[in-house]
Design goal:
InterPro entries: Glyco_trans_48_dom. This protein is α+β, with helices and mostly antiparallel strands. It has helices spanning about 35-45, 115-125, 145, 150-155, 180-200, 215-220, 240-245, 270-285, 290-300, 300-305, 310-325, 330-340, and strands at about 25, 60-65, 80-85, 100-105, 130-135, 140, 155-160, 160, 165-175, 215, 250-265. The protein folds into 2 domains: about 20-50 and about 55-110, no CATH class; about 130-330, Spore Coat Polysaccharide Biosynthesis Protein SpsA, Chain A. The strands form 3 sheets. A 5-stranded mixed sheet has the order 5-10-9-11-6, sandwiched between helices. Strands 1-2-3-4 form a 4-stranded mixed sheet. Strands 7-8 form a two-stranded antiparallel sheet. Helix 7 (about 240-245) crosses helix 9 (about 290-300). It starts with about 20 loop residues before the first strand and ends with a helix.
């Protein structure tokens, strides 16, 4: 929103009038001292400025789960998704914490995904606006990308209001340092950019996750932006795209590359190995879900076969691995002798 002031004053624009930043902290109630310090720095850094004669409530909250009873006795516990910001009062029992501004009771033991999927679906109720973008904590934007934000938001513009869309964007991998980092960054680029570009061209792109922008109104109608089921659906983001596609109604998923978000990963060997294991396991679990069966029943053959590309890559790599381990070079002399004879 652009605010026009008298000519003798400068014309100013408060970005927090149009955009808000929400951070999901599932472990806030169990933070250590240094983690509380970092959380306070985050709240103060993104606190909304005060002006025009009255204090404004911050729209930049963090969320945490609070257990009111013994954590071991889960059946007797109550769990809440809570909203805090820099203007919340301190807790008398623990000054490091802040009293929540809003609390929404969650049914049963809600921590299913123990991570991003559960965080996103619990935190989306506190967001404002009609378009939402979910990014990980190891991602960051660039100043020049901010200038392209109006173009990205314009992708949702239509004659009848906001279009029912998921608009995907590429990532700039910043952890391409050394041979191991370059291998991990190349795999991330292929998975998050090249494949998604191909899927979008063929009309079968689902949803990679971050840094895609989504029409929040439609995503909330289908139950959220992730499938938070612990150890069952490791690729939690793609199910938002599958449910979005299955609902039909002129919904579409696009891919654009004029805007990107930086992303860095841990360069340790175990971290890279865990990432690839997560991809392969998640791909296998997708074949067992209702969404994949329904897509096979509803989509035509070209669109249905396109997502299987990703699931054929592990088989291709496994075949190459068998050939390499078989040491094919030792058979070359025998082949030459047969051809010469």
């Amino acid at each position: 929103m652009v605010e026009h002031i008298h000519q003798d004053k400068k014309m100013g624009w408060d970005a927090t009038e149009a955009f808000s930043c929400l951070g999901c902290m599932q472990r806030y109630a169990d933070f250590k001292d240094h983690e509380f310090k970092h959380a306070e720095q985050l709240l103060q850094r993104f606190d909304r400025r005060k002006g025009r004669g009255h204090a404004k409530q911050s729209e930049n909250p963090a969320k945490y789960h609070k257990n009111l009873a013994d954590k071991i006795l889960r059946s007797c516990s109550s769990y809440y998704s809570c909203l805090i910001d820099a203007n919340c009062e301190r807790d008398e029992n623990d000054p490091r914490k802040r009293k929540p501004r809003f609390r929404v009771e969650l049914p049963g033991f809600p921590i299913l995904g123990d991570g991003k999927g559960d965080n996103q679906n619990s935190g989306i109720i506190y967001t404002r606006g009609s378009i939402i973008q979910a990014i990980d904590s190891n991602q960051g934007a660039y100043f020049e990308q901010m200038l392209l934000l109006p173009c990205a938001l314009g992708e949702f513009r239509s004659t009848g209001g906001l279009a029912a869309r998921i608009v995907g964007f590429a990532e700039h991998i910043t952890s391409d340092i050394g041979s191991l980092g370059d291998f991990a960054a190349g795999a991330e680029t292929a998975f998050g950019t090249v494949l998604q570009r191909s899927y979008a061209t063929l009309g079968a792109r689902m949803h990679y996750g971050h840094p895609d922008m989504m029409n929040k109104e439609y995503m909330m109608q289908q139950g959220g932006v992730s499938k938070a089921t612990k150890m069952l659906n490791l690729s939690e983001d793609i199910f938002a795209g599958k449910d979005f596609t299955l609902r039909g109604g002129l919904r579409e998923i696009l891919h654009r590359e004029y805007l990107h978000v930086g992303k860095g990963r841990d360069l340790g060997f175990n971290s890279v190995l865990f990432f690839f294991a997560k991809l392969f396991q998640g791909t296998g679990e997708q074949l067992l879900t209702r969404q994949m069966k329904r897509l096979g029943d509803e989509l035509d053959l070209p669109e249905f076969l396109t997502p299987l590309w990703l699931q054929s890559i592990p088989l291709l790599v496994f075949t190459w691995l068998l050939l390499v381990l078989d040491d094919p070079e030792q058979n070359f002399p025998a082949i030459d002798e047969q051809q010469g004879g």
